[in-house]
Amino acid sequence: MSLEEVARATRVPLASMERIEAGQFDELPGEVFVRGFLRSYARAVDVPGDEVLARYTASRRIAWVTPLPISAPARPGRSGRFGVAIAFVLLLFLFALALSIVLKPRSHDMPQELSRLAPQSSSPASASDGRA
Fold first, then answer.
1. What angle do CA 23, 8, 49 make, to 5 degrees?
2. Integer CA distances (angstroms), 116 to 20, 47, 113, 121, in order
3. Quick check: is 26 in a domain?
4. pLDDT of the chain, 132 residues: tens digit per residue
5. 111, part of any domain
6. Model pTM?
7. Which helix (H) or strand (E) segment is 51 a member of?
8. What H or E segment, with its residue span, contains residue 96?
9. Dist. CA 17–CA 28, nearest whole Å
10. Following CA atoms 68, 72, 77, 83 in sequence, which dihedral angle do they give, to the nearest 10 degrees?
């Protein structure tokens, strides 16, 4: 059976089959694909797939590394409380500012033009009483 026929039968790309034949496993897509290609190749040529995969694993000597957890730098507990205290004071200040804006007396908010007319508006009423 030629390599082209095996590639057609297994539906593995011919370039991947050539790399498997040359032992260039590092140039293949990924570990999962390589294992699938090898299993398909073994089935196509009537070789036990488990034996092929065992030989491949032994030749690769894959080291499974368990990553170590990264520990966060130790923080003193006091700095966390200090940040909370600052946030609380800022919120209290903003609340007091908002409250002062909402509860500000509105009687002295008249424009100057209207404030001049306000005292005069009472005098024409008294003047009209005087004329009558």
1. 50
2. 99, 108, 5, 9
3. yes
4. 788 888 888 888 888 888 888 888 788 888 888 888 888 888 888 888 888 888 888 877 655 666 777 777 666 556 678 888 899 999 999 999 998 888 876 666 666 666 666 554 455 555 555 554
5. no
6. 0.43
7. helix 49-60
8. helix 77-102
9. 9
10. -150
Centroid of chain to Cα 9: 44
| Cα–Cα distances in angstroms (integers) from residue 69 to residues 44, 63, 74, 80, 115, in the given order | 44, 18, 15, 24, 72
Specify the number of domains making up the chain: 1
In this structure, is residue 96 part of a structural domain?
no
**Does residue 88 lie within any of the structural domains?**
no
DSSP run (H or E) holding 72: none
SS3 content of the chain, % helix, strand, coil (to 5): 70, 0, 30
Question: Which two three-digit tokens encode residue 12?
Answer: 């593995």
Range of the structural domain that residue 56 is part of: 3-60
